């Protein structure tokens, strides 16, 4: 008899989830599994929003941002009694295996669920923050970086006529990855991230000298997780460096956009490896990408560690911004 | 003998200036005029940054945002003595006619210059704010609107998974055009602009009811010129409507981006009509676009009037947002 | 009692139809009408694919290309007996008024239907070819032009390193509008359209001279409707001008893409005016856009006339390309 | 005394060259080297188009497609006497090291030059075809894939209303990489590449059945290097499958476009590793990217081997398209 396998999205959605859903259906069918969708994340597990999925359900979604099956942050799933209900729902549909697109919080929840009820799962790291330990890449990051790029490129077009500093806030929570890569690839003059202590005073002299030498504008990329508010950085430019400053807060536009080719291909590969793992005795793992290859890692090694920024990138930061 | 004609950009730059420069050179040559560039706006007039322009100078710029010849806001040009220097510089190059890409402040300055020194000019309304009286369209607006659209579309992709209100601030100074058109064309749930008084209380009940009926998110587009800060609107959503809110401040990304086809075509037409006017006894005018056609208007009718939002658009606002 | 009104798409779809559907539902409800969708064009009329439409049906489509309700080219609707069935279906749903997004063929069909059965309708000109007499703008054109622009801009980036001629074919059937505007706004060196006779020989000498003077590449925009195949133009470059040539056929990518702001706003206005007309004794008309305003025109004046290219544009063509 | 190092682009340009030039200047200066540009590839070496480069030369180019310093295919450089001239020119500028952005032909030429004259160099694989042995990634591929994606996404928007097959030709010469990844990430129904023999007959039955079962359209991605012309594939759809077909030839638009974040970051890393290698006894190598890391390889291992498509990708092709 064919086995049943389900997929769900948990936490914030990212571009790349839709291509993942499409490939999930196709790859499940190819492996003689019946694919199911759980709608609205763990909330849907509890509320039995679980349905069979077919080719038709994933037609025309490969190029769309967001996730067709919804996502959620579930407080209820943190309670034992709701997890018991979730288990009943899965049993009702005869579902033994779950693929979970989410972040480390979602994986920790799933880990508990596995230990309590034996529901096998494989996590696929999905967050634009790229802040999950154990994997060098999380689904959605590339699309997000390219949205940020487009925004910064547009600002750059106009920057020189204004004689101003442009202070641009990126997402990332406690992780400076988005800000750092954006700064490197846009040639920004300043990059501030939570991982690296900074002292604005050290830039003051240098920036004043650059203005005196003819520099017309500054691009500053700051991660939302730094200790100061983006408006304080703008204020510093105005008061200490002596140049008018303007703020851009990119906000949730960083979460959307049509998925890039890289995110579609990674979605494809993550899903293939996740299903392969579930069919081959990986019952409580996250599929991780490192050094060009995929490996299953334990929840312990992924969701209970602190993410470290790539040391090569940190060196570049140091080189470029003398921090 | 061939006459000399120059072009300059004044005030904030907009996408569409580069295509205008390209067509200026081509159309001047076709009309047996020698084209000149004045770099860095009125500052360049004063500092004699004036050069002959040729086909080579405009190769490959038609698809670039910003302006190749720079722009500026000049305080010196408001003083008689600097205008006298500017006049000397123009005389030195034997330049009799100027095309000025800018806003109403720039046109008023040029008007004084004309009255003092007889330098003929034609203004081309250029500002993303679309806030110049006498013309229904200003160069750069379409590109700006499409940049805003792309940002809002990306937010919309992700909006439904979050159960949040997204409050997006657009530019426009005292004019709500960008915000209003963006709201209409993105299907936003709220639109606040400086021209129309609003009372947040009137939305409170309705928005709460919509949430109770299943609505997952709100898009709110607010113009930078409204009486409250965008963060206060977000706060209102959180405290009064009872939904988490996030802020996006688009900032100067609205000023850049590759010019759209519409802005390139308008650049083409504005420049043709400006030069035609200068060659046909229009010596102190702005070329305006209304009802699908172009007419020269006096500075009085353009730069000394307050811009009024299109009444049809205001009706739509009323229809959609019950204000 | 509330009246029922339906909308359908006929012929090739265009970007802008989805925003039109969204506004149709909203504007119908606002005017106390019950909105219906007819799926798959006239085929759906015959096969009774007709359904009530609600806000939910149009959520999240404003930023999508194509049309959510499908379109078709129907041969059956050209036969009296199928039109009789269509009428029965409409009667069954009590639908008295139709909004038809389509081209002149679709309008002629509807005109016959009106004369036979008295079903009131208003046509909205929708085709990327912009080849409908009586209106200066057809829904979808702006999006299409911007897709073409993006393609040409990408070719321009790379053009100079190759020493080649790039021959780019645009759509447009018998109408050169897309090719002509694309050429003007991309600074192409050659533009060939069906409306204007050309003689390649006249360019030969000039192009050879330009190569001798250092020109590295040519961009040629040709409309699909010209007498020669795009490959023959490439061959001419290679054999007569003496420069390697490469062909790009844009094809149906010109029909898709997220609708631009201009197309969304035009969709909005076309639909408002169409419904207003139907409610005000316009029973057999097409809503047309000229000189910045909207007027209802008879089918005779729209669908039985040959479209003429804007004479100002033709002048530009002549100026630029000496034809 | 500071040493001199130069960079040049050879062969077809790719998006990513400009960010590479920017980082070259910055990283050379940081390593106490004097950076030089060689304009127009090996032709410029022969004609002494060699100049010092500074920060100013690379301002504002990081987001531009193409290459600011030009590129060329040089026949003269294949002759000993011209290479001798090239060597004299380099000596004249005291340049000891070269970074070469190009393909395997360019690297073979440089290898001869090194053996004759001892000019140290490091190659950076740069071609959208991704067909260089020894490296899994060539600069420019990601940008190219995303341009193709945008084109296919636009076609997909409109595909379902037409009941047609869309046959899209990608570049790649003898390599099917672009076509294969594009097909996987766009969910195409057919993918034909030169590396894998195909038999159209095998698809005929299945495609007819799919049409009978309700399929409205087909997307077919074909690589330019297959044995048949793209038009023959379209003809096959019309004559054998029985569905109207339309052709899109993407052509050189695949070579342009603003470089993606991935290509900018890879440009950054390739250049850093190339210069590091030259300063550390790598005198005749290509810097290659595999398994997430960079290694220097000999010309023998790169430019004299045939590129093999990634076997995992080939499996996917087989899975999806039963070839």
Describe the model.
- Four copies of one chain form a homotetramer.
- By secondary structure, chain A is of the alpha/beta class.
- In chain A, strand 1 (about 5-10), helix 1 (about 15-30) and strand 2 (about 35-40) form a beta-alpha-beta unit.
- The first copy, chain A, has helices at about 15-30, 40-45, 80-90, 105-115, 140-160, 175-185, 200-210, 230-240, 260-280, 300-305, 310-320, and strands at about 5-10, 35-40, 50, 95-100, 120-125, 165-170, 190, 220-225, 245-250, 285-290, 295-300.
- Chain A has two domains: about 5-140 and about 260-305, Rossmann fold (3-Layer(aba) Sandwich); about 140-250, 3-Layer(aba) Sandwich (Rossmann fold), CATH 3.40.50.
- The longest helix of chain A has 19 residues, at about 140-160.
- Chain A is about 40% helix and about 20% strand.
- The mean pLDDT of chain A is about 95.
- In chain A, about 60% of the residues are buried.
- In chain A, helix 1 packs parallel to helix 9 (about 260-280).
- In chain A, strands 3-2-1-4-5-10-11 form a seven-stranded mixed beta sheet, with helices on both faces. A four-stranded parallel beta sheet of chain A has the order 7-8-6-9, sandwiched between helices.
- The first copy, chain A, contains eleven helices and eleven strands.
- The interface between A and B is large, with 40 and 40 residues.
């Amino acid at each position: 008899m064919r086995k049943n396998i389900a997929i769900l999205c948990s936490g914030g959605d990212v571009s790349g989830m839709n291509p993942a859903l499409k490939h999930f259906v196709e790859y499940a069918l190819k492996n003689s599994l019946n694919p199911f969708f759980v709608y609205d994340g763990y909330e849907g597990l509890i509320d039995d929003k679980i349905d069979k999925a077919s080719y038709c359900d994933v037609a025309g979604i490969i190029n769309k941002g967001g996730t067709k099956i919804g996502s959620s942050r579930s407080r209820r799933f943190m309670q034992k009694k709701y997890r018991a209900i979730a288990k009943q729902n899965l049993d009702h549909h005869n579902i033994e295996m779950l693929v979970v697109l989410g972040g480390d919080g979602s994986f920790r929840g799933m880990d508990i669920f596995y230990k309590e009820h034996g529901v096998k799962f494989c996590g696929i790291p999905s967050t634009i923050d790229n802040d999950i330990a154990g994997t060098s890449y999380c689904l959605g990051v590339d699309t997000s970086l390219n949205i940020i790029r487009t925004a910064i490129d547009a600002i750059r077009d106009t920057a020189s006529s204004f004689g101003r500093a442009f202070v641009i806030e990126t997402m990332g929570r406690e992780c400076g990855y988005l800000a750092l890569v954006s700064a490197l690839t846009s040639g920004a003059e300043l990059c501030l991230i939570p991982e690296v202590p900074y002292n604005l005073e050290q830039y003051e002299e240098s920036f004043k000298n650059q203005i005196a030498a003819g520099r017309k504008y500054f691009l500053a990329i700051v991660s939302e997780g730094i200790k100061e508010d983006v408006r304080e950085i703008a204020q510093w430019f105005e008061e200490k460096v002596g140049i008018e400053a303007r703020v851009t807060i990119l906000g949730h536009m960083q979460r959307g956009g049509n998925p890039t080719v890289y995110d579609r291909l990674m979605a494809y590969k993550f899903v293939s490896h996740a299903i392969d793992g579930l069919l081959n005795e990986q019952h409580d793992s996250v599929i991780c990408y490192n050094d060009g290859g995929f490996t299953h890692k334990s929840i312990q090694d992924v969701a209970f560690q602190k993410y470290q920024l790539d040391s090569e990138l940190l060196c570049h930061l140091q080189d470029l911004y003398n921090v």
